[in-house]
Write a structure and sequence with these properties.
The chain is of the alpha/beta class and about 475 residues long. It contains 14 helices and 22 strands. The mean pLDDT is about 95. It binds zinc ion.
């Protein structure tokens, strides 16, 4: 078998792993690379392989750094089936349409700029029409059911506990009279998180591709997360400010809404209005409501038995129109705004940042990972002046980072995951989806535990095993 690392290698975005087994070309993930604008455009436009030569695509989850380049793959000739869990398929529909809009707007803006200088227009990476062409290729699969995907290869999707519908994929492979178990972890979630079930780890693997986003880090104890959030809200409320939470529309937003709901009914936070300002978050929430099969026991109880809506309560308002979004700028009394994108690379959160950063009573609360060179990372790193929509803005408000909400396993949780495959059996570990310091730290720990052949592949690297 051949494994080619075509994206998400030595970085956390743009995941693409290509397997060639028994003559079949199987792509796992087709993520969008996110970073500096120019570099992103170039990296995303062309693939390191021929899309028309790919037989099958499998997707671990709907996050755009795993799914976001699918429409471009189809535009460039891919015609095979795309296997993903039913919830992932539904989420992709929403996420990819939104992504197409962003690319269309981006291209329109750049074309206008080019025109001023007499340069040719810029083509969007892909359009809404390309998304519509890709959607019929999706095939929804059930968790824990082995699906034959090519000659001698079956794939089983196991709950990864990362976002709704997320999965690790177990490949059971018969090749040249040899049977092997290859696991691709996808993004690994955490145990005891709200809404989702704990990760169902892939076990007894011979070969593993493991994400290592937080390979060098340990998350603080998550039991305190709810109280910590309540404290922060009380503090900012008291000084009369606004809390802006840049948050991924899918997953993080629903987790926060669920927690805020709990805090609200328990009277642990003051009675202040909460706005979820992202049309996509609204649509994603509808999809959460449609997939109770992905919920953990506590959610099942609230949602199915008590017939309560965990994603809606009196003080919470979903904002959909752009006018309503702009009206939030004029609010004088304390309030909370959740808005996408989480890495502040686009979306309505940008204009909320412009209105939030100048005042010291306000707070921007980060609750997720931000890749290098993104605006969110700059703010998290304490930059005092940041570029937003072409202008520099000074940061006078409080910037807070709460890591409790990370959707990724930390070093201990990754090691625990690896522990489900014994070092005697596991022949190859490839660390993907992580920056170099994360991978190095995890590699050291894995080697201490006796794992052999732990490798951190480069972009474009090919291995034969
Ligand atoms: Zn993810």
């Amino acid at each position: 078998m051949q494994i080619e690392f075509m994206g998400g290698a030595q970085t956390v975005t743009g995941s693409q792993h290509l397997l060639t087994i028994n003559g079949s070309r199987i792509l796992v993930e087709c993520g969008l690379f996110q970073g500096r604008r120019q570099e992103s455009r170039e990296r995303n436009q062309s693939f390191l392989f021929d899309p028309a030569g790919i037989d099958t695509l499998l997707l671990t989850h709907a996050h755009i750094d795993h799914s976001g380049n699918i429409p471009n793959l189809v535009k460039r000739g891919f015609r095979g089936p795309i296997y993903a869990t039913a919830a992932t398929v539904d989420l992709c529909e929403v996420l990819l349409r939104d992504s197409a809009h962003i690319h269309e707007q981006d291209a329109a803006y750049l074309s206008k700029e080019n025109k001023k200088e007499g340069l040719p227009p810029v083509e969007a990476l892909y359009t809404t029409a390309d998304v519509e062409a890709a959607l019929p290729l999706f095939r929804g699969v059930e968790y824990s059911e082995a699906v034959p995907i090519a000659k001698g290869i079956s794939a089983t999707f196991q709950d990864a506990g990362h976002i709704l519908g997320s999965a690790g994929i177990l490949f059971e492979i018969e090749e040249n009279g040899k049977t092997r178990r290859l696991g691709i972890t996808g993004d690994i979630g955490r145990t005891k998180q709200p809404i989702l079930r704990d990760p169902n780890r892939l076990r007894e693997l011979d070969i593993m591709l493991m994400e290592c986003t937080y390979g060098s880090r340990l998350h603080p104890h998550s039991a305190d997360a709810t109280e910590e959030l309540a404290k922060v809200i009380r503090k900012v409320h008291q000084r009369g400010g606004r809390i802006l939470i840049p948050s991924f529309a899918v997953g993080r937003t629903q987790t926060l809404v669920y927690m805020l709901h709990k805090l609200y009914i328990q009277n642990r936070i003051p009675d202040l209005p909460i706005y979820v300002d992202s049309p996509m978050a609204f649509e994603a929430t509808q999809i959460f409501r449609r997939h109770p099969e992905c919920f953990d026991r506590e959610m099942q109880r609230t949602f199915l038995r008590d017939r309560q809506d965990p994603f809606g309560f009196a003080r919470l308002k979903y904002i959909r129109s752009a006018e309503q979004s702009k009206e939030l700028n004029d609010l004088k009394s304390p309030h909370i705004i959740l808005s996408a994108s989480g890495m502040c690379e686009g979306g309505r959160v940008l204009h909320h940042l412009i209105h939030t950063l100048p005042s010291p009573e306000n707070m921007v609360l980060f609750v997720g990972y931000a890749a290098q060179d993104t605006l969110a990372r700059k703010l998290m790193d304490g930059d005092q002046n940041v570029p937003i929509l072409g202008h520099m803005h000074s940061v006078n408000c409080e910037i807070n980072v709460m890591e409790y909400f990370s959707g990724h396993a930390d070093q201990n949780e990754l090691l625990e995951y690896a522990g489900y495959s014994s070092p005697d059996r596991l022949e190859h570990v490839f660390l993907i989806h992580g920056e170099p310091d994360s991978a190095a730290a995890l590699q050291e720990k894995l080697e201490e535990r006796g794992y052999r052949n732990v490798h951190y592949p480069e972009l474009g690297e090919t291995v034969e095993i």
